[in-house]
Amino acid sequence: MLKSSKDMEIVLSGIRSTGNLHLGNYYGALRNYIKMQDSYNCLFFIADLHSLTTHPHPNDFHSGVKTILAEYLASGLDPEKSAIFIQSDVPEILELYVLLNMISYKGELERTTSFKDKVRKQPDNVNAGLLTYPVLMAADILIHRANLVPVGKDQEQHLEMARVLARRFNSFYNCEIFPEPKAFNFGDDLIKVPGLDGSGKMGKSEGNGIYLSDDEKTITKKVMRAVTDSGPTEPNSPMPESIQNLFTLLKIVSDKTTVDYFYECYNNCSIRYGDLKKQLAQDICKQTLPIKERIDEIYNNDEYLKRVVKRGTDIARESALSTLKEVKSAVGFRSFL
Ligand code: TYM
Q: What's the predicted TM-score (pTM) here?
Protein backbone atom coordinates (compact mmCIF):
# COMPACT_ATOMS: atom_id res chain seq x y z
CA MET A 1 0.00 0.00 0.00
CA LEU A 2 1.10 3.54 -0.68
CA LYS A 3 0.89 5.87 2.35
CA SER A 4 -2.75 5.96 3.29
CA SER A 5 -3.61 9.65 3.22
CA LYS A 6 -5.87 10.22 0.23
CA ASP A 7 -4.91 13.88 0.10
CA MET A 8 -1.22 13.21 -0.44
CA GLU A 9 -0.11 13.77 -3.99
CA ILE A 10 1.64 10.92 -5.77
CA VAL A 11 5.26 11.45 -6.74
CA LEU A 12 7.10 9.26 -9.21
CA SER A 13 10.51 9.47 -10.82
CA GLY A 14 13.37 7.32 -12.05
CA ILE A 15 16.89 7.27 -13.41
CA ARG A 16 18.31 5.01 -16.12
CA SER A 17 20.81 2.36 -15.11
CA THR A 18 23.63 3.56 -17.33
CA GLY A 19 26.59 4.04 -14.99
CA ASN A 20 27.17 5.93 -11.76
CA LEU A 21 25.07 8.89 -10.69
CA HIS A 22 26.62 12.30 -11.32
CA LEU A 23 25.97 15.75 -9.89
CA GLY A 24 23.36 16.40 -12.61
CA ASN A 25 21.32 13.37 -11.52
CA TYR A 26 21.78 14.29 -7.88
CA TYR A 27 20.89 17.99 -7.97
CA GLY A 28 18.44 17.76 -10.88
CA ALA A 29 16.51 14.80 -9.52
CA LEU A 30 17.64 12.72 -6.55
CA ARG A 31 17.96 15.53 -4.01
CA ASN A 32 14.34 16.41 -4.69
CA TYR A 33 13.28 12.78 -4.24
CA ILE A 34 14.89 12.75 -0.80
CA LYS A 35 13.23 15.99 0.26
CA MET A 36 9.81 14.84 -0.96
CA GLN A 37 9.72 11.57 0.96
CA ASP A 38 8.01 12.92 4.08
CA SER A 39 5.25 14.93 2.48
CA TYR A 40 4.16 12.86 -0.52
CA ASN A 41 3.30 9.36 -1.58
CA CYS A 42 6.60 8.54 -3.29
CA LEU A 43 7.62 5.89 -5.81
CA PHE A 44 11.15 5.89 -7.20
CA PHE A 45 12.49 3.40 -9.65
CA ILE A 46 15.44 2.40 -11.80
CA ALA A 47 14.68 2.68 -15.51
CA ASP A 48 16.46 -0.46 -16.68
CA LEU A 49 14.23 -0.86 -19.76
CA HIS A 50 15.00 2.66 -20.90
CA SER A 51 18.71 1.92 -20.58
CA LEU A 52 18.36 -0.83 -23.22
CA THR A 53 18.08 1.81 -25.94
CA THR A 54 21.87 2.13 -25.78
CA HIS A 55 22.50 -1.65 -25.78
CA PRO A 56 24.42 -2.34 -22.55
CA HIS A 57 26.30 -5.66 -22.53
CA PRO A 58 24.29 -8.41 -20.76
CA ASN A 59 27.22 -8.98 -18.38
CA ASP A 60 26.97 -5.39 -17.14
CA PHE A 61 23.20 -5.03 -17.14
CA HIS A 62 22.42 -6.24 -13.62
CA SER A 63 25.39 -4.54 -11.96
CA GLY A 64 24.25 -1.28 -13.59
CA VAL A 65 20.87 -1.61 -11.88
CA LYS A 66 22.47 -2.53 -8.55
CA THR A 67 24.77 0.49 -8.75
CA ILE A 68 21.88 2.95 -9.02
CA LEU A 69 19.98 1.15 -6.28
CA ALA A 70 22.96 1.37 -3.89
CA GLU A 71 23.54 5.02 -4.80
CA TYR A 72 19.84 5.87 -4.26
CA LEU A 73 20.00 4.39 -0.77
CA ALA A 74 23.41 5.85 0.07
CA SER A 75 22.08 9.30 -0.90
CA GLY A 76 19.22 9.02 1.58
CA LEU A 77 16.25 7.41 -0.17
CA ASP A 78 14.45 5.65 2.65
CA PRO A 79 12.69 2.39 1.75
CA GLU A 80 10.37 2.85 4.73
CA LYS A 81 9.12 6.11 3.27
CA SER A 82 9.31 5.52 -0.49
CA ALA A 83 8.60 2.56 -2.72
CA ILE A 84 11.86 1.77 -4.49
CA PHE A 85 11.65 -0.66 -7.41
CA ILE A 86 13.06 -1.74 -10.75
CA GLN A 87 11.04 -0.83 -13.85
CA SER A 88 11.21 -4.32 -15.41
CA ASP A 89 9.75 -5.90 -12.24
CA VAL A 90 6.45 -4.15 -12.95
CA PRO A 91 5.14 -5.68 -16.18
CA GLU A 92 1.93 -3.62 -16.01
CA ILE A 93 4.02 -0.67 -17.20
CA LEU A 94 4.62 -2.50 -20.47
CA GLU A 95 0.94 -3.23 -21.02
CA LEU A 96 0.15 0.44 -20.60
CA TYR A 97 3.10 1.30 -22.88
CA VAL A 98 1.56 -0.78 -25.68
CA LEU A 99 -1.82 0.87 -25.22
CA LEU A 100 -0.29 4.36 -25.16
CA ASN A 101 1.69 3.56 -28.31
CA MET A 102 -1.65 3.23 -30.13
CA ILE A 103 -2.45 6.86 -29.44
CA SER A 104 1.08 8.25 -29.99
CA TYR A 105 1.95 9.49 -33.46
CA LYS A 106 5.17 9.15 -35.43
CA GLY A 107 5.34 12.87 -36.23
CA GLU A 108 5.16 14.04 -32.63
CA LEU A 109 7.69 11.45 -31.49
CA GLU A 110 10.12 12.38 -34.25
CA ARG A 111 9.91 16.02 -33.19
CA THR A 112 11.12 15.27 -29.63
CA THR A 113 14.43 17.01 -28.97
CA SER A 114 15.91 14.00 -27.18
CA PHE A 115 15.13 11.80 -30.20
CA LYS A 116 16.69 14.26 -32.63
CA ASP A 117 19.76 14.43 -30.35
CA LYS A 118 20.15 10.66 -30.33
CA VAL A 119 19.76 10.47 -34.10
CA ARG A 120 22.68 12.87 -34.32
CA LYS A 121 24.80 11.18 -31.65
CA GLN A 122 24.20 7.53 -32.51
CA PRO A 123 23.21 7.37 -36.19
CA ASP A 124 23.98 3.64 -36.30
CA ASN A 125 21.50 2.78 -33.59
CA VAL A 126 18.27 4.69 -34.20
CA ASN A 127 16.05 1.94 -32.79
CA ALA A 128 12.27 2.09 -32.28
CA GLY A 129 12.84 2.14 -28.51
CA LEU A 130 14.46 5.55 -28.89
CA LEU A 131 11.51 6.84 -30.87
CA THR A 132 8.99 5.63 -28.29
CA TYR A 133 11.17 6.49 -25.26
CA PRO A 134 8.75 9.24 -24.16
CA VAL A 135 5.80 6.82 -24.43
CA LEU A 136 7.46 4.34 -22.07
CA MET A 137 8.25 7.23 -19.78
CA ALA A 138 4.60 8.34 -19.87
CA ALA A 139 3.58 4.76 -19.01
CA ASP A 140 5.96 4.83 -16.00
CA ILE A 141 4.26 7.96 -14.74
CA LEU A 142 0.63 7.35 -15.66
CA ILE A 143 0.50 3.76 -14.38
CA HIS A 144 0.69 5.26 -10.86
CA ARG A 145 -1.45 8.29 -11.73
CA ALA A 146 1.42 10.43 -10.48
CA ASN A 147 0.83 14.14 -9.93
CA LEU A 148 4.43 15.30 -9.53
CA VAL A 149 7.58 14.15 -11.27
CA PRO A 150 10.89 15.51 -9.94
CA VAL A 151 13.26 15.78 -12.91
CA GLY A 152 15.94 18.03 -14.37
CA LYS A 153 15.30 20.55 -17.11
CA ASP A 154 16.23 18.14 -19.91
CA GLN A 155 13.07 16.11 -19.16
CA GLU A 156 10.59 18.98 -19.55
CA GLN A 157 9.51 17.96 -23.03
CA HIS A 158 8.99 14.35 -21.98
CA LEU A 159 6.71 15.53 -19.20
CA GLU A 160 4.74 17.56 -21.73
CA MET A 161 4.32 14.37 -23.77
CA ALA A 162 3.07 12.51 -20.67
CA ARG A 163 0.47 15.24 -20.15
CA VAL A 164 -0.59 15.10 -23.80
CA LEU A 165 -1.02 11.32 -23.59
CA ALA A 166 -2.94 11.55 -20.29
CA ARG A 167 -5.34 14.07 -21.83
CA ARG A 168 -5.60 12.18 -25.09
CA PHE A 169 -6.34 8.85 -23.41
CA ASN A 170 -9.00 10.38 -21.15
CA SER A 171 -10.70 12.03 -24.08
CA PHE A 172 -10.28 9.14 -26.55
CA TYR A 173 -11.86 6.66 -24.13
CA ASN A 174 -14.18 9.10 -22.46
CA CYS A 175 -12.85 8.56 -18.96
CA GLU A 176 -10.98 10.44 -16.27
CA ILE A 177 -8.38 7.90 -15.28
CA PHE A 178 -5.23 9.97 -15.59
CA PRO A 179 -4.33 13.24 -13.87
CA GLU A 180 -1.89 15.48 -15.76
CA PRO A 181 1.57 15.06 -14.22
CA LYS A 182 3.75 18.10 -13.56
CA ALA A 183 7.55 18.31 -13.56
CA PHE A 184 8.76 19.33 -10.11
CA ASN A 185 11.73 20.99 -8.48
CA PHE A 186 12.05 22.56 -5.04
CA GLY A 187 12.81 26.17 -5.85
CA ASP A 188 11.39 27.89 -8.88
CA ASP A 189 12.63 26.25 -12.03
CA LEU A 190 13.85 22.89 -13.17
CA ILE A 191 17.62 22.92 -13.16
CA LYS A 192 20.38 22.06 -15.56
CA VAL A 193 23.71 21.19 -13.96
CA PRO A 194 26.41 22.23 -16.43
CA GLY A 195 29.52 20.27 -17.34
CA LEU A 196 32.89 21.83 -16.58
CA ASP A 197 34.24 21.37 -20.07
CA GLY A 198 33.16 24.74 -21.33
CA SER A 199 29.60 24.26 -22.56
CA GLY A 200 26.48 22.15 -22.23
CA LYS A 201 25.10 19.96 -19.46
CA MET A 202 26.76 17.39 -17.26
CA GLY A 203 25.86 13.96 -18.58
CA LYS A 204 26.92 10.35 -18.63
CA SER A 205 27.31 10.26 -22.39
CA GLU A 206 29.04 13.66 -22.44
CA GLY A 207 31.95 12.13 -20.48
CA ASN A 208 32.14 15.18 -18.21
CA GLY A 209 30.53 13.81 -15.05
CA ILE A 210 31.54 14.35 -11.46
CA TYR A 211 30.17 11.23 -9.79
CA LEU A 212 28.80 10.56 -6.32
CA SER A 213 31.25 7.65 -6.22
CA ASP A 214 34.31 9.82 -7.00
CA ASP A 215 36.91 10.26 -4.25
CA GLU A 216 38.31 13.59 -3.13
CA LYS A 217 41.36 13.42 -5.36
CA THR A 218 39.32 12.64 -8.47
CA ILE A 219 36.80 15.41 -7.77
CA THR A 220 39.55 17.94 -7.16
CA LYS A 221 41.33 16.90 -10.34
CA LYS A 222 38.15 17.18 -12.42
CA VAL A 223 37.26 20.59 -11.02
CA MET A 224 40.79 21.97 -11.35
CA ARG A 225 40.73 20.93 -15.03
CA ALA A 226 37.59 22.96 -15.71
CA VAL A 227 37.80 25.25 -18.72
CA THR A 228 38.39 28.94 -17.86
CA ASP A 229 39.90 31.96 -19.61
CA SER A 230 42.44 34.63 -18.70
CA GLY A 231 39.90 36.52 -16.58
CA PRO A 232 37.95 39.78 -16.93
CA THR A 233 39.91 42.91 -17.71
CA GLU A 234 37.09 45.41 -17.22
CA PRO A 235 34.78 45.69 -14.21
CA ASN A 236 31.36 44.02 -14.56
CA SER A 237 32.23 42.26 -17.82
CA PRO A 238 29.76 39.73 -19.22
CA MET A 239 30.69 36.16 -18.34
CA PRO A 240 31.68 33.65 -21.00
CA GLU A 241 29.76 30.35 -20.79
CA SER A 242 32.60 28.36 -19.24
CA ILE A 243 32.80 30.82 -16.32
CA GLN A 244 29.02 31.00 -15.98
CA ASN A 245 29.05 27.22 -15.63
CA LEU A 246 31.51 27.38 -12.75
CA PHE A 247 29.29 29.92 -11.03
CA THR A 248 26.18 27.84 -11.69
CA LEU A 249 27.79 24.88 -9.93
CA LEU A 250 29.03 27.10 -7.13
CA LYS A 251 25.47 28.38 -6.60
CA ILE A 252 24.26 24.80 -6.35
CA VAL A 253 26.83 23.48 -3.88
CA SER A 254 28.15 26.48 -1.90
CA ASP A 255 26.61 28.93 0.55
CA LYS A 256 25.51 32.40 -0.43
CA THR A 257 28.45 34.22 1.20
CA THR A 258 30.92 32.21 -0.86
CA VAL A 259 29.00 32.78 -4.08
CA ASP A 260 28.69 36.53 -3.41
CA TYR A 261 32.40 36.75 -2.61
CA PHE A 262 33.44 35.23 -5.94
CA TYR A 263 30.93 37.34 -7.89
CA GLU A 264 32.44 40.40 -6.30
CA CYS A 265 35.95 39.25 -7.22
CA TYR A 266 34.80 38.65 -10.80
CA ASN A 267 33.15 42.03 -11.07
CA ASN A 268 36.16 43.95 -9.73
CA CYS A 269 38.57 41.86 -11.83
CA SER A 270 40.45 40.41 -8.86
CA ILE A 271 39.20 36.87 -9.37
CA ARG A 272 41.66 33.97 -9.30
CA TYR A 273 40.03 31.01 -10.95
CA GLY A 274 42.36 28.63 -9.08
CA ASP A 275 40.85 29.81 -5.75
CA LEU A 276 37.33 29.54 -7.11
CA LYS A 277 37.94 26.00 -8.31
CA LYS A 278 39.56 24.95 -5.02
CA GLN A 279 36.55 26.23 -3.10
CA LEU A 280 34.15 24.56 -5.55
CA ALA A 281 35.96 21.20 -5.24
CA GLN A 282 35.88 21.45 -1.45
CA ASP A 283 32.17 22.25 -1.37
CA ILE A 284 31.32 19.42 -3.80
CA CYS A 285 33.32 17.01 -1.62
CA LYS A 286 31.48 18.18 1.49
CA GLN A 287 28.21 17.10 -0.11
CA THR A 288 29.23 13.94 -1.92
CA LEU A 289 31.91 12.23 0.20
CA PRO A 290 29.49 11.20 2.99
CA ILE A 291 27.36 9.56 0.27
CA LYS A 292 30.36 7.87 -1.31
CA GLU A 293 31.34 6.36 2.04
CA ARG A 294 28.05 4.47 2.24
CA ILE A 295 27.85 3.18 -1.35
CA ASP A 296 30.12 0.11 -1.19
CA GLU A 297 28.67 -1.32 1.99
CA ILE A 298 25.13 -1.03 0.64
CA TYR A 299 26.14 -2.38 -2.78
CA ASN A 300 27.53 -5.52 -1.15
CA ASN A 301 24.54 -6.16 1.10
CA ASP A 302 22.41 -8.32 -1.19
CA GLU A 303 20.00 -9.33 1.58
CA TYR A 304 19.16 -5.71 2.31
CA LEU A 305 18.81 -4.76 -1.36
CA LYS A 306 16.46 -7.67 -1.90
CA ARG A 307 14.25 -6.59 1.02
CA VAL A 308 14.14 -3.01 -0.26
CA VAL A 309 13.17 -4.04 -3.78
CA LYS A 310 10.64 -6.62 -2.60
CA ARG A 311 8.80 -4.05 -0.51
CA GLY A 312 8.93 -1.41 -3.24
CA THR A 313 7.80 -3.80 -5.97
CA ASP A 314 4.79 -4.97 -3.94
CA ILE A 315 3.65 -1.38 -3.51
CA ALA A 316 4.33 -0.45 -7.13
CA ARG A 317 2.54 -3.49 -8.54
CA GLU A 318 -0.52 -2.99 -6.40
CA SER A 319 -0.78 0.59 -7.59
CA ALA A 320 -0.06 -0.36 -11.22
CA LEU A 321 -2.56 -3.22 -11.30
CA SER A 322 -5.37 -1.06 -10.03
CA THR A 323 -4.74 1.56 -12.75
CA LEU A 324 -4.36 -1.06 -15.47
CA LYS A 325 -7.66 -2.66 -14.56
CA GLU A 326 -9.48 0.63 -15.13
CA VAL A 327 -7.48 1.33 -18.28
CA LYS A 328 -8.31 -2.02 -19.86
CA SER A 329 -11.93 -1.68 -19.03
CA ALA A 330 -12.00 1.80 -20.61
CA VAL A 331 -10.33 0.49 -23.78
CA GLY A 332 -12.93 -2.28 -24.02
CA PHE A 333 -11.11 -5.43 -22.97
CA ARG A 334 -13.46 -8.10 -21.60
CA SER A 335 -11.74 -11.36 -20.67
CA PHE A 336 -13.11 -14.79 -21.63
CA LEU A 337 -11.12 -16.37 -18.82
P1 TYM B 1 18.42 9.97 -16.93
O2 TYM B 1 19.07 8.78 -16.36
O3 TYM B 1 18.93 10.52 -18.20
O4 TYM B 1 18.40 11.17 -15.90
C5 TYM B 1 17.90 10.99 -14.61
C6 TYM B 1 17.53 12.31 -13.97
O7 TYM B 1 18.68 13.16 -13.84
C8 TYM B 1 18.38 14.42 -14.42
N9 TYM B 1 19.61 14.99 -15.01
C10 TYM B 1 19.98 16.26 -14.85
N11 TYM B 1 19.44 17.28 -14.17
C12 TYM B 1 20.08 18.46 -14.17
N13 TYM B 1 21.26 18.65 -14.83
C14 TYM B 1 21.86 17.66 -15.51
N15 TYM B 1 23.01 17.87 -16.13
C16 TYM B 1 21.21 16.39 -15.56
N17 TYM B 1 21.50 15.20 -16.14
C18 TYM B 1 20.50 14.35 -15.81
C19 TYM B 1 17.32 14.14 -15.48
O20 TYM B 1 16.59 15.31 -15.77
C21 TYM B 1 16.50 13.09 -14.79
O22 TYM B 1 15.56 13.67 -13.91
N23 TYM B 1 14.06 9.63 -18.96
C24 TYM B 1 14.53 9.74 -17.58
C25 TYM B 1 14.35 8.43 -16.83
C26 TYM B 1 12.90 8.08 -16.68
C27 TYM B 1 11.93 8.81 -15.94
C28 TYM B 1 10.69 8.09 -16.12
C29 TYM B 1 11.97 9.95 -15.17
C30 TYM B 1 12.29 7.02 -17.26
N31 TYM B 1 10.95 7.04 -16.92
C32 TYM B 1 9.52 8.53 -15.51
C33 TYM B 1 10.78 10.38 -14.55
C34 TYM B 1 9.58 9.68 -14.75
C35 TYM B 1 15.98 10.22 -17.62
O36 TYM B 1 16.25 11.21 -18.15
O37 TYM B 1 16.92 9.52 -17.05
A: 0.96
